[in-house]
Design a protein that fits this description.
By secondary structure, this protein is an alpha/beta fold. It is 49% helix and 14% strand. The chain folds into 2 domains: 10-211, no CATH class; 236-315, no CATH class. The chain has 11 helices and 6 strands.
Length: 320
């Protein structure tokens, strides 16, 4: 019988990766994401599972103090939600994780690297097809300033590995496949597909949820929250787009379309309306290019084409 529990529901995700006695599952996952840059050998989970004391998407944040094979320590946070302003949130989490280590009398060189890992089942970075993206402080030539601040994004919708070629996949790809498909697999299938014992152990943790009435109740509650929240976010975005079009065309009051209407007065009302719509669509999709200055140089045909492309991208995201 399939496990029937999705590790992408934050309750299950945290229980699977933040349960004492199952630390090797967490270590295996961290090493799969961080790759060869560090090899985590031990962890201390700062906020282990203690019950349903969650509030909104804060429940999915895991605080982990990890140590690598060279004795270096790393502060790591993980989360699975994709709320509005996620990029800014991730940057804030990473900066806070770094800064809050420093106490009076401490030296700056004593700061530990701060790493944030974000696992998403919706696309965030629309300008690349990478399953795993590793962000650090670099200059325009790729030279490192420091590796102390890192943000890793695992976008599961970009997984290309299949069941047939899973044995040739990277560790990160195997974990992505597990997270996406564990719910519909049996424990026996997981043991056959994934030779590493950590995957079978992770599946066992998910199975235990079904055998514990209280945990199953918490899981169902969080599953409902996840579905409701996803619907609310998408509905809000769709409504904002609709209102932005109407208000922008009439008065140019909506944020993101105001400048488009202003520039549109210089190139014609039709072009201004299109620029405003494009700006709104870009904001919903997390895009910044082309900018408003560039758009003002487009003719009506070019603006229509771009607007149509962006609408298609948004429909595709909403249907996924």
């Amino acid at each position: 019988m399939p496990i029937g529990i999705s590790p992408l529901v934050d309750f299950a995700f945290k229980l699977m990766l933040a349960s004492r006695g199952h630390e090797r599952v967490t270590i295996h996952f961290l090493n799969a994401i961080l790759g060869e840059q560090v090899r985590i050998v031990s962890i201390e989970i700062e906020n282990p599972y203690v019950g349903p004391n969650f509030e909104g998407d804060k429940w999915v944040v895991l605080d982990i103090l990890a140590t690598d094979e060279r004795g270096r320590k790393f502060n790591i946070e993980m989360q699975t939600s994709i709320p509005p302003g996620l990029r800014q949130r991730l940057a804030f989490y990473d900066a806070r994780l770094y800064v809050e280590q420093l106490r009076q009398g401490d030296q700056y060189h004593e700061l530990l690297p701060a790493i944030v890992i974000c696992v998403l089942d919706k696309p965030l970075l629309t300008d690349c097809d990478n399953l795993h993206t590793d962000f650090r402080l670099r200059d325009e030539f790729g030279r490192a300033f420091t590796d102390d601040l890192q943000i890793h994004v695992l976008e599961l919708t970009k997984l290309t590995a299949t069941r047939e070629n899973l044995q040739l996949a990277t560790a990160a790809e195997r974990w992505a496949y597990f997270l996406l498909n564990a719910e519909n697999l049996t424990v026996a299938e997981i043991r056959e597909m994934f030779p590493e014992p950590e995957f079978a152990e992770a599946a066992g943790v998910l199975e235990m949820i079904k055998d514990n009435p209280d945990q199953m109740s918490d899981y169902i509650s969080r599953l409902k929250y996840k579905l409701d929240e996803g619907w609310r976010i998408e509905s809000t975005r769709a409504e904002a787009l609709k209102e932005g079009r109407e208000e922008g065309i009439k008065e140019g009051k909506k944020e993101g379309i105001k400048e488009g209407i202003k520039e549109g007065r210089n190139v014609g009302l039709k072009e201004g309306e299109l620029i405003g719509q494009i700006v709104i669509l870009q904001e919903l999709l997390g895009l910044t290019e082309p900018g408003r200055e560039d758009l003002s140089n487009y003719d009506t045909i070019q603006l229509n084409d771009l607007c149509s492309q962006l609408r298609l991208q948004l429909r595709s995201r909403q249907s996924s």
